[in-house]
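Field log, afternoon session.

UNIT: design team B
ACTIVITY: writing a sequence onto a fixed backbone
BACKBONE:
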């Protein structure tokens, strides 16, 4: 926790709590730290030193270590809403970013009141989360996915083919893929370590098993004991990094003529989920477990992208073949008749 030395003790305790007790990842804890540091800098500006927070140079230099718990106890719900307005108008934070900040602030005050008793009352108990417009996830079509798999050219072909195959068939996250160890693979299953260090097991289809087998046949064991168990290795014999995987996927997309369309490893995860739902008749609850989602509402977005299923539903309606009856019309009678 040395990197959080600029924090007051109660904030360091909170960050340590969510890392060790709540089991959040280091990346998540860092995000909490950045959000709450920005929030406390704003509070110090407007409530303690009475300084204009709009000056970005001065704002980034504000120290928060001396903000006391008494200062925190004086924060009101109005102060938090003012901060969110500042984040939107002066720091160009979109609704998704502000929603994350709200989550950080709510968790922080919940800890101060419920878990540690630093505060007697929670000023943000009724703090609402900014509404976020859900966008449809981008994904490759079945044809584009097949094109991607058949166009891979690389000096590490077996490794790169295996990486793309796992993304497109298993819907795993980038962090999950680079974290796979050899002992995580057992017959037709693989163990993944997801968000919050939560483990889940998914099944491997024939394509995945064949791709893994072909890669293991040419994989050179590293000399470094630290990386001995890593499934995917770099050319230097070390565990492959997320950035290197992103570069590999970018190269594969370019070879398939799919570059410049916003695709990424995360979009391949979306592709796997969409293809499972569209073509595999996968129940949404099963899909939730495969993807490692905490909430079913996160998975339900894939029910809105299945145009094929909606089209088939319309075609298969029991009334889909009803046609209008052409009736004989009575001849018109002119007034002269």
């Amino acid at each position: 926790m040395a990197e959080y030395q600029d924090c007051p003790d109660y904030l360091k305790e909170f960050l340590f709590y969510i890392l060790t007790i709540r089991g959040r990842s280091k990346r998540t804890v860092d995000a909490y730290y950045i959000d709450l540091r920005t929030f406390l800098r704003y509070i110090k500006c407007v409530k303690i030193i009475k300084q204009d927070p709009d000056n970005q140079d001065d704002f980034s230099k504000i120290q928060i270590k001396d903000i006391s718990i008494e200062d925190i106890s004086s924060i009101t719900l109005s102060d938090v809403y003012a901060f969110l307005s500042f984040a939107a108008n002066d720091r160009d934070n979109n609704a998704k970013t502000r929603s994350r900040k709200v989550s950080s602030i709510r968790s922080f005050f919940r800890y101060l009141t419920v878990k540690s008793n630093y505060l007697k009352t929670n000023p943000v108990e009724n703090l609402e989360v900014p509404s976020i417009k859900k966008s449809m996830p981008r994904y490759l079509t079945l044809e584009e996915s097949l094109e991607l798999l058949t166009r891979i050219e690389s000096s590490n072909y077996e490794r790169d083919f295996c990486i793309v195959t796992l993304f497109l068939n298993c819907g795993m996250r980038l962090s999950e893929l680079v974290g796979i160890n050899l002992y995580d693979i057992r017959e037709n299953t693989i163990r993944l370590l997801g968000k919050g260090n939560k483990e889940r097991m998914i099944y491997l289809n024939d394509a995945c098993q064949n791709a893994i087998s072909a890669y293991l046949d040419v994989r050179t064991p590293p000399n470094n004991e630290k990386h001995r168990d890593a499934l995917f290795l770099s050319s230097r014999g070390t565990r492959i990094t997320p950035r290197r995987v992103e570069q590999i996927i970018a190269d594969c997309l370019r070879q398939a003529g799919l570059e410049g369309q916003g695709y990424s490893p995360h979009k391949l995860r979306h592709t796997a989920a969409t293809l499972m739902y569209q073509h595999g008749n996968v129940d949404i609850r099963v899909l939730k477990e495969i993807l490692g989602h905490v909430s079913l509402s996160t998975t339900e977005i894939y029910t809105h992208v299945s145009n094929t299923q909606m089209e088939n539903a319309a075609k298969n309606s029991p009334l889909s073949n009803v046609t209008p009856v052409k009736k004989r019309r009575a001849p018109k009678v002119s007034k002269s008749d």
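LOG NOTE: The first helix runs from residue 9 to 20.
NEXT ACTIVITY: expression trials, pending approval
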